[in-house]
Design goal:
The chain has 277 residues and is α+β, with helices and mostly antiparallel strands. It is built from six helices and ten strands. Helix content is 22%, strand content 21%. The strands form three sheets. A four-stranded antiparallel beta sheet has the order 1-6-7-5. It has a four-stranded antiparallel beta sheet with strand order 2-3-4-8, with helices on one face. The radius of gyration is 20 Å and the shape is globular. The two termini are 25 Å apart.
């Protein structure tokens, strides 16, 4: 694969795989006995979290919302964002590594450890009923009524469609990798204005996006640089990509050379033939 300019952040398929890995060991009713902060600050200070209040509470469930991992407890939600290089893993009392920042001790379970070399990720607490960043998120790509909501949001903005796809208030969980791939497979230019897309194009785009995300989830996500699952294994979807990271390589469909252009500070990979503006 060609080299991308930016380090991609984990997107929906990667976060979904992390959540599924966590769910294999932790389940509803597991009690949090304590925590240990090896570093006081990642993106935001861990000491801002009311640990004494959370400890001894029972976990209700773990799930994903957009690119966030949500640990729901009785009195609120512990929210984790992996940033660029964050990861969760299970380990023993002696299984500590450089850049470990947080350890959660659950009753009769191995330690749950958060590691983040670049410190761009974060863990924060949202008290039950409190307003939060979760309230601003757009619909999930797999929501039942996604077409109507997504279409309306696109009709109300004139930004490029690639920019819209990466806006979490328009649709949740889609980042640079899967936006590039979905637009290519839908044969839509990344630079086309969102409000100029026809309903048929929006429908095709959503179907391609959903198919790509499902395939990426089954493939364990994309391990382009740092991302690994909870068990430490890498994803494989990067081997199936059509455009992302393939600058100056031939298009797998038409043999045209894949191009890269900076769009709103991020690299957009596209085929100028398959995705004519």
């Amino acid at each position: 694969m060609g080299r991308a300019v930016e380090e991609p952040m984990p997107e929906l398929p990667e976060v979904e795989n992390v959540v599924r890995g966590l769910q294999k060991t932790l389940s509803s009713g597991d009690e949090l006995l304590g925590s240990k902060r090896l570093s006081l600050k990642i993106r935001w200070p861990l000491e801002l979290i009311p640990w004494q209040q959370i400890e001894t509470q029972k976990l209700q469930k773990i799930h994903r919302r957009a690119k966030y991992i949500l640990f729901e407890f009785e009195s609120g939600i512990l929210v984790s964002h992996l940033g660029m290089t964050g990861s969760w893993r299970f380990g023993s009392a002696c299984d500590f590594k450089k850049h470990d920042h947080l350890i959660l001790h659950f009753k009769n379970k191995p330690n749950l450890i958060y590691n983040d070399p670049r410190k761009f990720g974060f863990v924060e607490w949202i008290a039950a009923g409190a307003a939060s960043r979760m309230d601003l998120l757009g619909p999930e790509p797999f929501d039942k009524n996604i077409f109507a909501i997504f279409s309306q949001k696109l009709n109300n903005t004139s930004v490029d469609i690639k920019t819209a796809l990466m806006n979490p208030t328009i649709i949740g969980g889609v980042g640079n990798i899967y936006a590039c791939e979905a637009l290519f497979q839908a044969k839509i230019s990344a630079f086309k204005k969102s409000n100029l897309l026809k309903p048929k194009q929006i429908g095709i785009l959503l179907k391609k996006l959903q198919k790509i995300l499902k395939t990426a989830i089954r493939s364990g996500g994309s391990s382009i640089r740092d991302y690994t699952k909870v068990d430490g294994k890498k994803g494989n979807y990067q081997k199936q990509m059509f455009v992302y990271g393939r600058e100056k390589q031939n298009c797998r469909i038409c043999d045209t050379v894949i191009r890269r252009k900076i769009q709103n500070g991020r690299s957009t990979f596209f085929c100028p033939s398959c995705q004519k503006k």
